[in-house]
Structure formats: structure tokens, C-alpha cells
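Entry 14. Structure prediction run on the chain below.
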Amino acid sequence: MDASHRAADNRDEALAALAVEIAGCRRCPRLVAWREHIAEERRAAFRDEEYWGRPVPGFGDPAATVVLVGLAPAAHGANRTGRMFTGDRSGDFLYAALHRTGFANQPTSRHRDDGLRLRGAYITAAVRCAPPGNKPEPAERDRCRPWIERELALLDEARVFVALGAFAYDVLRPLVGTTERARFGHGVEVRAADDRVVVCSFHPSQQNTFTGKLTEAMLDQVLVRARALAGGA
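Output returned:
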């Protein structure tokens, strides 16, 4: 085995080990109580399912050149399935776009073992536990930041970071080391000194997609742009 293959294997193993650490985190009492309450109470439509009910690690291609960052798991989405943006309307919108733009092998994501694979992309979030009202507190965001710092450090081929919403953008900018101070807006791009780039997109929440604030064409355009910036075809 040559050095490049050994490095890739080491990265994959480190990401897998980090995922185990993330899933065991109990740093934020309010979030622990909420995610476990939701997992026990369950929604009627999913009453026969076993909820994940833990912090959610990132998911995707360890050799990704494009990393997508959301806010946090949805209470009955990733908090149920254990995979980012899986099992809810936001995920339906996002994975369909990833499939259209060549990053995913299928347009839907229902559960962790549904055969979905990402190519050249990795999905993670600024906060790993489902927060009440989808609103993490600043202290919870800060306690969670080391997880994404470690994750991004391991994703050493990533060149472009897609911020899905202003919350993710505010967390990403200092981590990537952007030199520009542009305000968040759909399609805004900010560059770091090492030429890595943060590209902004409105979050694929139902509030944005149902009102037309974010359309399929708008999200596709961001993903196609991210691929081009990362050096893809």
C-alpha cells in the first residue's frame, strides 16, 4: 500500500472514530433532555421506529472537495434517523438537488441504510443535537464548535464550504479563515487566504422552499458553482 492510500485509510478511520465521539456527547443539558424526550415521545407517523436520539455525526465522502454545513438536526428528521438531513422535507429538497448536480447516487434519503452515497461531498452541521424550536443557544453553539473544527481538519481535500443558512455561515467563516466580511446572502462567496471558499445558500427549510425564497434552480446553481470552485467538471 502506497503512502496516499495509507493516508486515506487513516483519514477514514479518524472520521469514523470522531463520529463515535460525537454520538456520545452530553455537553449541553438542555439539548440532551430535548433530543431524548423527542426520541421517547416520537411523532405518530414514526411511532414504530426507534429514534437515534443522540448527536448526529457528519456524513459523506471522506475525500470530499465540497462540504455542506447546516444548522442542526431536525427533531423528527436526523434526530430520528441518525444521518444529517435524512427523513424530513428539508432533506428531501437537499438530496434531490445533490442528485441532480451529481453529488449523490439517488435523490432521496429515508434512513441510514438506504443505499445513499455522496460523491465529492460531505454534509455536517454547526450543532449536532436537535434544539427546541430549531434555535440553539450561543453557549450550545460554542460547546459544539470543537466537533466541526475537528471534522473539517480531517476533511483535508475540502476546498469549498456551502453554508446552508446564516447560522452555519457565522460558524464557518472563522473556521475556514475567510479574509472578507461579506454579509450573508444567497449566492454570496467569501474566500480564505488559502483560496478555500465559503458559498452561501438559503437553508432548505420548509419556510424557505414552500414560500419560494429558495427554489430548486437556486440551490442547483449554488451546488454547480461549488463544484466548479472546487475544481470539478
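The beta strands are 59-60, 66-70, 121-125, 160-164, 189-191, 197-201.
Filed with the rest of this week's runs.
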